[in-house]
């Protein structure tokens, strides 16, 4: 038996080598897909069809990587006839079988040779027979030992099969050959089982759906290894065609909608925009080296292999040892494999229209009566992602639009654009409705302004309010990382937790006024910073370690900057040297009124950030504060202790006065 298999393998190698050597104008897939329909009625096409019939095994499948358009010698034809009944090397890998079925369909459309029809139907039966009971397909059938038995998404193998089943089950005109009603029903059943398998194999990170791996174990459905350099991992490339297939389904189930939205969120999270691939070619145009070059605002790409828990890209040589960068593996694998892909861009391009059509009970984003949209991770609402709900909000609405968010951990970046005014983001509970993301300065890596891209939630639309939820930057103490960025006017934030480390809360916008009430805000360095006029009332301001609470950049001539009233400043037990603030810009204004200052506040209170001119231009003041940290006689000489008549002007109405009266009380 071993000798027989070696003989078969040698024959396949000889055939493949000989035919590939003869091919001089088009690859085999190009012959199928790029020729005009009329070509399939030519004598040349008929000669190719005879080859394709010879290559098809009696079981119905074809081998892969064969240039079937090349002329066969008499001996090669004899060898192929001998191979027909062996069923070895029949596969769906690299497009095999599915592409030959397409070729036969195109031939039959021009030449009604019943052999072409029979060949197509045998191929279809082969695909049906090869399916596992769980809905997946192996790479080879009959089963070939090793990783080939895994459910195979690699190189779009299973997606290609499911696209065949979809066309057959929907009885479209894509194929010229029409199977019997019985076979159509089998194809429909196979398609449904395949989609169910896709849904069950979508990988979860800490309970959150992400994407798919190139291979999944045929029994456990867990991620599985393939070749030594193809370790179990999330795949930016293979997941693309899976999502596009799911998006092509009319009237998708709630589970399909959730799968697509979750995968899109993962694509957004894992896209790389600071690298570009540079290829070095020789005189024949062959790649002799690949390098990844740092770039700013490069077009998005995705890694082929990403860690199952961290999403970090990794690379392997034939030794199977994970490396962090492409230049750490040998040239043979570095240059002979596709390690990055921009394929997910197609998903992201099609997604907004798909989301409006399929992701919500609201049929159109510009419906005039949209006033309430519900977000729930269990699928019971209009959307499972907050950002999708924002997409469905009308632009510049006459009425307020409430996005009600059910309890859950929403791992996503959320942006309320400038045109989405009058948005109310309302959580079910402050403790259990959590929006979190983990961007930081180094991760973004877009140059000196990277901080401003690190937000978890960005508010640009005026007349915004948010309540009863937690907004968190989960990157840890690893440099700048914004949790909430508000660059809108008339923004109210109430009963919220705003969590992070350095630069937790960014407040800006030309002449912007913002109101925080009953909130908990924590961080390390400059964790409340920016140029807006902001009023904080009944808030707890918590320092995680010794550093600075505020870093205002109030514009010159602006009457108020940051004002804290009836707030409580607390800290971790290890923190005992925290400044109330320092000036990001020299006209910074920050005032604390009736606040309880913990013992962690330094006696001098304020620091000039090595800007002597700030001592003449800033306005740092306190009034009627209390606690161990309130030491007015020890404050820096250039700060102020307000008198009662001076403090009386620091009212909510005076500070937040706007052309829309009492907006902050809504």
UniProtKB/TrEMBL annotation:
Record's GO cellular component terms: cell outer membrane
E.C. number: 3.1.1.11
Annotated Pectinesterase catalytic domain residues: 373-658
Active site: 526
Keywords assigned: Aspartyl esterase, Hydrolase, Lyase, Signal
One term of GO molecular function: pectinesterase activity
Signal peptide: 1-21
Domain of life, per lineage: Bacteria
Pfam families, per the entry: Pec_lyase (PF09492), Pectinesterase (PF01095)
Catalytic activity entry: [(1->4)-alpha-D-galacturonosyl methyl ester](n) + n H2O = [(1->4)-alpha-D-galacturonosyl](n) + n methanol + n H(+)
Pathway the protein contributes to: Glycan metabolism; pectin degradation; 2-dehydro-3-deoxy-D-gluconate from pectin: step 1/5
Gene Ontology biological process terms in this record: cell wall modification; pectin catabolic process
Enzyme's top EC category: hydrolase
PANTHER family found in the cross-reference section: ACYL-COA THIOESTER HYDROLASE YBHC-RELATED (PTHR31321), PECTINESTERASE 53-RELATED (PTHR31321:SF57)
Similarity field: Belongs to the pectinesterase family.
Protein name as annotated: Pectinesterase
Protein's organism: Flavobacterium resistens
Organism phylogeny: Bacteria, Pseudomonadati, Bacteroidota, Flavobacteriia, Flavobacteriales
Gene (UniProt): pelA
């Amino acid at each position: 038996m071993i000798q027989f298999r070696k003989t078969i393998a040698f024959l396949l190698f000889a055939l493949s080598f000989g035919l590939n050597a003869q091919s001089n104008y088009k690859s085999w897939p190009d012959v199928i897909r790029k020729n005009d329909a009329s070509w399939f009625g030519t004598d040349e096409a008929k000669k190719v069809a005879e080859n394709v019939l010879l290559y098809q095994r009696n079981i119905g499948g074809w081998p892969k990587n064969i240039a079937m358009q090349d002329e066969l010698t008499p001996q090669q034809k004899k060898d192929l006839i001998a191979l027909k009944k062996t069923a070895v090397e029949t596969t769906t890998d690299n497009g095999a079988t599915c592409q030959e079925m397409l070729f036969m369909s195109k031939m039959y459309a021009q030449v009604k040779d019943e052999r072409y029809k029979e060949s197509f139907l045998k191929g279809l039966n082969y695909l049906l027979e090869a399916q596992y009971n769980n809905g997946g397909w192996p790479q080879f059938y009959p089963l070939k030992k090793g990783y080939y038995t895994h459910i195979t998404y690699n190189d779009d193998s299973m997606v290609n099969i499911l696209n065949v089943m979809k066309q057959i089950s929907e009885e479209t005109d894509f194929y010229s050959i029409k199977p019997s009603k019985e076979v159509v029903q089998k194809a429909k059943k196979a398609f449904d089982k395949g989609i169910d398998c896709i849904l069950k194999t979508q990988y979860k990170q800490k309970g959150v759906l992400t994407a798919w791996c190139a291979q999944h174990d045929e029994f456990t459905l867990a991620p599985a290894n393939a070749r030594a350099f193809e370790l179990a991992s999330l795949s930016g490339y293979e997941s693309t065609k899976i999502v596009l297939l799911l998006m092509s389904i009319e009237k998708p189930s709630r589970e399909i909608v959730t799968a697509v939205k979750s995968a899109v969120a993962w694509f957004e999270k894992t896209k790389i925009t600071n690298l570009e691939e540079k290829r070095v070619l020789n005189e024949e145009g062959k790649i002799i080296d690949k390098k990844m070059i740092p770039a700013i605002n490069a077009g998005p790409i995705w890694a082929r292999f990403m860690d199952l828990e961290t999403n970090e890209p990794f690379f392997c040589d034939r030794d199977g040892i994970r490396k962090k960068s492409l230049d750490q593996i040998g040239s043979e694998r570095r240059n002979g494999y596709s390690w990055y892909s921009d394929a997910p861009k197609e998903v992201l391009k099609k997604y907004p229209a798909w989301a409006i059509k399929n992701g919500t009970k609201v049929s159109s984003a510009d419906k005039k009566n949209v006033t309430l949209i519900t977000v729930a991770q269990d699928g019971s609402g209009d959307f499972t992602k907050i950002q999708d709900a924002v997409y469905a909000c009308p632009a510049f609405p006459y009425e307020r639009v409430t996005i009600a968010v059910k309890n859950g951990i929403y791992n996503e970046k959320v942006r309320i654009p400038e045109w989405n005014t009058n948005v109310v983001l309302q959580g079910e509970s402050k403790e259990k409705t959590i929006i979190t993301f983990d961007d930081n300065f180094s991760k973004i890596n877009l140059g000196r302004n990277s901080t401003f891209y690190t937000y978890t939630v960005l508010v640009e639309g005026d007349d915004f309010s948010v309540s009863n939820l937690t907004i968190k930057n989960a990157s840890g103490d690893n440099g700048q990382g914004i949790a909430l960025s508000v660059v809108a006017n008339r923004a109210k934030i109430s009963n919220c937790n705003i969590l992070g480390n350095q630069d937790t809360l960014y407040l800006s916008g030309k002449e912007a006024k913002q109101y925080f009430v009953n909130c908990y805000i924590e961080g390390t360095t400059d964790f409340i910073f920016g140029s807006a006029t902001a009023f904080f009332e009944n808030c707890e301001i918590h320092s995680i370690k010794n550093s600075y609470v505020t870093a205002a950049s109030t514009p010159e001539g602006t009457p108020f900057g940051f004002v804290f009233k009836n707030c409580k400043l607390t800290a971790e037990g290890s923190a005992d040297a925290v400044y109330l603030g320092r000036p990001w810009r020299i006209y910074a204004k920050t005032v604390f009124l009736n606040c309880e200052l913990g013992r962690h506040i330094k006696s001098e209170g304020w620091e000039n950030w090595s800007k002597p001119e700030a001592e003449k231009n800033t306005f740092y003041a306190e009034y009627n504060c209390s606690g161990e940290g309130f030491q007015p006689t020890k404050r820096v000489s250039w700060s102020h202790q307000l008198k009662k008549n001076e403090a009386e002007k620091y009212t909510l109405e005076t500070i937040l006065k706007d052309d829309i009266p009492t907006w902050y009380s809504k």
